[in-house]
Amino acid sequence: MNQGVLKNRFSLSRLLVVAAGVAILALVYFGLLADKASAHGYVVDSRAHLCAQEVNVNCGPVRWEPHSVEGRGDFPEIGVPDGQLAGATVFPGLDAQTADRWAKVNMQGGPHTFHWKIVANHSTNTWDYYITKPGWDPNSPLKRADLELFCRYIDHGALPPDDVYNDCFIPNDRTGYHVILAVWDIADTQNAFYQAIDVNLSINPNAPTVPAPGFPGDPDRFGDILEWNPIRAYTTGEIVLHNGQIWRARWWTQGQEPGTTGQYGPWELVSGSGEPHEPHEPHEPGQPNEPGEPNEPGEPNEPGNQYPAWSSSQIYTGGEIVSYNGQLWRAQWWTQGQVPGADQWGPWQLVN
């Protein structure tokens, strides 16, 4: 009898221990879920948002987290892989791509305002908007080559409000089903938030086919190289513009201002501004091999012979800089035999 009582008590104790363990795991899980749900942002009427509204069905977990479509930033040079642009590698259900898989938002070409709902604020680098090109294949996985940039805003590390509105001009030269990819690139991390928007486009008869330069959101109003941001973390090979000069990161760095860390700091001077009225450059004793730069104003398209000419037989790795056709090019990854400038999404990035 005593053995039976002891056995029952032992079973009850074991049951209580198991129950306590389950309770603790549940608390941890829901705590992590709540913490994750406190981040980040989505575009109103995006593919993910319409999943949350159950307009799009069978979407997977993104139904509860349309604001968490987060992946590697610095798109398109780095970013998430082709075929995973909509789901950013974390919500693969969003990457299904056929002509009739997703509900579509009716939209006209011309002026349009995109609305981001921000759940948790992040210091912002850029807000970029891409659209599929005329003739794209809606039944193939979405890839970089399908897209073209049509709108950009740069925030230089600012914290956005809870509602962000970006005025853009949607290309007024295409109709039917297209995908717009909105990318919120974060300044204080290496990530970005991706939002695919499925639209049914029509021509706006009251808007021009091509707007005049300088329209709201015109991506060409900025240079190819972004200004250095003291908040953002940079990795080896990344290029920035600071005080009229172009700098390349030698290694991971954050908050270290280019030009102030000395010869052995994290930043390497790639090219000056082309403004010979800045006399301090030729007088720096640490650069005796560049005395002729300010005296050669007639050759601005030859940015410096200190970089080797590109060779089709040479292997280049990420961060290496070469001279080709009077311009400097930086390898974004391993490459051999690929001509700089031949492919917009190729391995070479124009430095100046």
From TrEMBL:
<dbReference type="InterPro" id="IPR004302">
    <property type="entry name" value="Cellulose/chitin-bd_N"/>
</dbReference>
<dbReference type="InterPro" id="IPR003610">
    <property type="entry name" value="CBM5/12"/>
</dbReference>
<dbReference type="InterPro" id="IPR051024">
    <property type="entry name" value="GlcNAc_Chitin_IntDeg"/>
</dbReference>
<feature type="transmembrane region" description="Helical">
    <location>
        <begin position="12"/>
        <end position="32"/>
    </location>
</feature>
<feature type="region of interest" description="Disordered">
    <location>
        <begin position="257"/>
        <end position="312"/>
    </location>
</feature>
<feature type="compositionally biased region" description="Basic and acidic residues">
    <location>
        <begin position="275"/>
        <end position="284"/>
    </location>
</feature>
<protein>
    <recommendedName>
        <fullName>Chitin-binding type-3 domain-containing protein</fullName>
    </recommendedName>
</protein>
<dbReference type="GO" id="GO:0030246">
    <property type="term" value="F:carbohydrate binding"/>
</dbReference>
<dbReference type="InterPro" id="IPR036573">
    <property type="entry name" value="CBM_sf_5/12"/>
</dbReference>
<feature type="domain" description="Chitin-binding type-3">
    <location>
        <begin position="225"/>
        <end position="270"/>
    </location>
</feature>
<dbReference type="Pfam" id="PF02839">
    <property type="entry name" value="CBM_5_12"/>
</dbReference>
<keyword id="KW-0732">Signal</keyword>
<feature type="domain" description="Chitin-binding type-3">
    <location>
        <begin position="307"/>
        <end position="351"/>
    </location>
</feature>
<keyword id="KW-0119">Carbohydrate metabolism</keyword>
<keyword id="KW-1133">Transmembrane helix</keyword>
<keyword id="KW-0812">Transmembrane</keyword>
<keyword id="KW-0378">Hydrolase</keyword>
<dbReference type="InterPro" id="IPR014756">
    <property type="entry name" value="Ig_E-set"/>
</dbReference>
<dbReference type="GO" id="GO:0005576">
    <property type="term" value="C:extracellular region"/>
</dbReference>
<dbReference type="GO" id="GO:0000272">
    <property type="term" value="P:polysaccharide catabolic process"/>
</dbReference>
<keyword id="KW-0472">Membrane</keyword>
<dbReference type="Pfam" id="PF03067">
    <property type="entry name" value="LPMO_10"/>
</dbReference>
<dbReference type="GO" id="GO:0004553">
    <property type="term" value="F:hydrolase activity, hydrolyzing O-glycosyl compounds"/>
</dbReference>
<keyword id="KW-0624">Polysaccharide degradation</keyword>
